[in-house]
Amino acid sequence: MHQDDGGPCVFGNVIRDAGHELVEWRPQDGAPPGGYDAAMVFGGSMHFDQEDEHPWLVPEAEWIKSLLDERVPTLGVCLGSEMLAHAAGWPVSRLARSEIGWHEVELTPAAQHDAVLSSVPARFPAFQWHSYAAEPPEDAVLAVSPACAQAYRVGDRAWGIQFHAEVDSAAIEHWLDDGADGEDVREVSLDIEAERQRTWREIADWTDLGRALCGRFLEVAAAG
To answer: Which helix (H) or strand (E) holds 119?
Structure first.
């Protein structure tokens, strides 16, 4: 986790319901705990390249690289997915226009046989909040939106998702309230009330999608 309002939410419930132990760690607090069998890296308001402002990003990036090197099952979300892509040596760049709110995402043909992404519908509205995005190799991309790659696999044990499949309604409500005056929100002229109303319509299906995706990731991790 990188901040209070960027935690596991729905994913945390799935992890605990499956009988696993969930250990929450912040890279600002020092070295990661040991003894884990899988890792999830969540989002944050900072960007992956703001190492001068957030020097703890440097050891965190080294830790994420070690996850890939040691083939630890890993799932990155938003900032986490960008850091995962960067650790893999892929470009990560700022979008011409931030992607915030509900946007359509579509799976690529490669996702049909993917161990994790095959658990979600072929096309779905996804909740987004990001200004940067990774540029994975074409054969690694599992989902796309008009703005960028939305899901990708790094090797055979790590996945990145740009959309926020982990959030629940409370998290979205907080982000909409807290970010209403943000620069990126003003950039896209986000209609906060419209996004709030759409969240009410979408949240039940969105929670089901998040639970399915997280559940499949846990199955892959346990099988390994």
So the answer is: none
Tell me: the pLDDT tens digits for 107-165? Answer: 999 999 999 999 999 999 999 999 999 999 999 999 999 999 999 999 999 999 999 99
77 found inside a domain: yes
Looking at the domain assignment, is residue 217 inside a domain?
yes
**How is residue 139 written in tokens?**
């054969």
Q: Residue 172: which CATH number?
A: 3.40.50.880
- On whether the CB atoms of residues 48 and 54 are closer than 8 A, the answer is no
Range of the domain at 49: 10-223
What gap in Å lies between CA 63 and CA 218, rounded to an integer? Answer: 20
68, two tokens: 């890939």
- Classify the C-alpha dihedral 150-15-208-114 as positive or negative: positive
Indicate the pTM of the whole model.
0.96
Per DSSP, the residues of 139-203 read GGEEEE-SSSEEEEEETTTEEEESS-TT--HHHHHHHHHHTTT-HHHHHTT--HHHHHHHHHHHH
Are 51 and 58 in contact by the 8 Å Cβ rule? The answer is yes
CB-side exposure of 131: number of CA atoms within 13 Å? Answer: 14
Q: What is d(CA 180, CA 16) in angstroms, rounded to the nearest whole number?
A: 32
pLDDT tens, residue by residue, 74-120? 999 999 999 999 999 999 999 999 999 999 999 999 999 999 999 99
Which residues 6+ apart lie within 8 Å of 177 measured at CB? none
